[in-house]
Amino acid sequence: MKLIKLAAVLGTLCLFSACSSHGSSKPIQTTNEIPLPGVGSKLAYTGPQGIFDVPNSTFEPLITILDNGEVYGMDLINNRVAGFFHGTVSANGTTLSSSDLTEYNAYDGGYVQAASLAATYTAPSLKVSLTFPFGTFSSSASEQKNFIKDDKQTIYSTPIATARFAGNYEGELSSVGTEMKLYSKTGAFAISTDGKFTASAGDCDFAGTLAPHGDKGVFDITANVSGATCTLIGQMQGLMTPVSLETKTTLGFQLLATDAKKSAMLFVTKS
Q1: Which of 29, 30, 52, 200 is the most exposed place for a label (fewest CB within 10 A)?
Q2: Among the CATH numbers 3.90.1570.10, 2.40.128.20, 2.40.10.240, 1.10.20.10, which is that of 162-270?
Q3: pLDDT in tens, 100-132
Q4: d(CA 84, CA 69)
């Protein structure tokens, strides 16, 4: 099993030009009611589903919208995680909106903040605006994320066997919560053919399972985190989204504690 670099994710990177004005060395408690993992929209969701790359001039959000209206997102810079968000979305015709997003920032010491999303879907394209306390960022995707560039086979709509991901990975782990600072350590990560995965970082040990989200190409994940002094100890759950299946497999694991006050994001590439 190879070691992965669970570094202080983007600790020296400024995600935004004015990061010193909104960043903090201490976690900030959002006033939002934080959406719980695995719980979708309170109303029946009838809007679009899928994985959408929506890069803007500052960063590259990757948004996954599930069949229950649950939304998971990763903020990427140069294929590294700068933050991640979770919430629910509602649909009214071609218009989507979310006012309960919670973003877990993995830079400037790490902190949690409220966010919102507004989007328009005209198949197969999605136009999105993400709003944070420090600004609004708009972008669009002409289509869903595909297995291969310019291919029309979308990752989201294609069932994938867990054995497809078996092996050792290298990458990064970042963790932040409303009552904890950014946590990052070096450790090891592996996935077995039956979808079970393990990770060890500092005093935190992860033991979890991948399960296909229905007939989709994304995976529901559960994990138990242990360790005598681990700040993440307990049950976590969330979503694994395949980020790339070309050349080398890259995966994004977004885990939240059952009360959503603690988070763990693993962004890994197959060795």
Answers
A1: 29
A2: 2.40.128.20
A3: 899 888 766 678 888 999 999 999 999 999 988
A4: 17
pTM here? 0.85
Query: Are 137 and 56 spatial neighbours (Cβ–Cβ below 8 Å)?
Result: yes
What does the alpha-carbon distance between residue 74 and residue 105 come to, in Å, rounded to a whole number?
10
**Six-digit token string for 219:** 């995976």
User: Which residue(s) pair with 31 in the sheet?
Assistant: none
Domain ranges of the chain: 10-141, 162-270
Return the closest-CA partner of residue 76 out of 264, 201, 252, 263.
252
Nearest 5 degrees, angle CA 61-CA 268-CA 164? 105
C-alpha 243/C-alpha 252 separation (Å) is 6
**Per-residue pLDDT tens over the stretch 30-76:** 445 667 776 665 567 889 999 999 988 788 889 999 999 999 999 88
